[in-house]
Amino acid sequence: MRGNVALTLALMAGAVSAARNATDTCAEGLYLIVARGTSELKGPGITGPLADRVAEQIKGSTVVPLDYPATLTDPDYDESVGDGVEALQQAVQNYTQSCPDSKVAIMGYSQGAQLTTDALCGGTGAGFESHEPLSADLIKKNIVAIVLFGDPTHVIDTSYDRGTSVKNGVLKRDNATVRVCETYSDRLVSYCDAGDVFCDAGGDRKVHGSYIGRYGDDALKFIADRYGKAAKSSDGSGDRRNRTSTSTVSGSTSTAAPTASSTDSPAASGGSSAAPSAGRGTVSAASGQVSGSIYLALSLVFAAALQAL
Asked: Which intervals of the chain form a coiled coil (predicted)?
């Protein structure tokens, strides 16, 4: 009898330990979540090389592609964005609950940039489903840097606006959520250049895929500086529950993966002018709804960009 009890307790302890290891592995450096753009293959997408550079500079960092559809159709763009919002919020909440003293950064490209701002600042407006943003306390405590490229919801002349853009994006973000984003301008930058088909409502299809080459060094410095300031302010009292089970993502060593649900929707590789995005990436979903006229306009813009290839 005593032996059976001991065996049962041992099995229970093993189950608890396994559950903790699955969700409680804390990066020694930065936990970097990367949201790819539309039609990019699962993985970090076009921002992958930059994410690898961040991981090389900030030792002990983890690079984690967000698992969401990243599609224009099947599911439709608005639903894909909604799924991505839910996946990102869940990934951040799960990780910071397990690793409360952790430091998180987020990079988003194209559709990945839109879902990131939706997740942090609230729904886009423009006919998309409204989403409640992540807690401001959580963002200010744990998220040290947010870097966006080619966001279709871009708004010019904000405190976090970077690049040469002179026009708003094709899905301009509403003023209420812009004001929320403004409160994070110390840790948020959004790159958009003039002529970009999506974030600047322009006509130059090449611009949308040029950000990493043009602004990669600036973005790397921004993330590293933000991480350094956060690490200094915490006086080295970071989370000490770090584990070392490693996996390789796009050539970088990572120590954990977020518990964001993945969908098996097909992703097609696209050029730099494909619907908000181009590259290799992953994502996760929540439903959102776009009015028929807005969705039609968005589809026409994307189709025109693809036909120009």
From this structure: none
The model's pLDDT over 71-121, given as tens digits with 9 standing for 90+, comes to 999 999 999 999 999 999 999 999 999 999 999 999 999 999 999 999 999
Angle CA 257–267–72, to nearest 5: 110
CB distance 82 to 131 below 8 Å? yes
**Token representation of residue 31:** 């936990």
CA–CA distances in Å: residue 133 to residues 65, 139, 283: 20, 10, 18
Q: What distance in Å separates the CA atoms of residue 103 and residue 239, rounded to the nearest whole number? A: 9
Question: Do residues 26 and 99 touch, judged by C-beta distance below 8 A?
Answer: yes
53-66 confidence digits (pLDDT tens):
999 999 999 999 99
DSSP strand pairing (143-149 vs 62-65): unpaired
DSSP-assigned letters across all residues of 155-196: -TT-TTEESS--S--TT---HHHHHHHHTTTTTEEEE--TTB
Gap between the Cα atoms of 48 and 95, Å rounded: 21
- What class is the 24-307 domain? alpha beta
Residue 282 half-sphere exposure, CB side, CA atoms within 13 Å? Answer: 24
> Can you give the pTM of this predicted structure?
0.74
Strand (E) or helix (H) holding 149 = strand 143-149
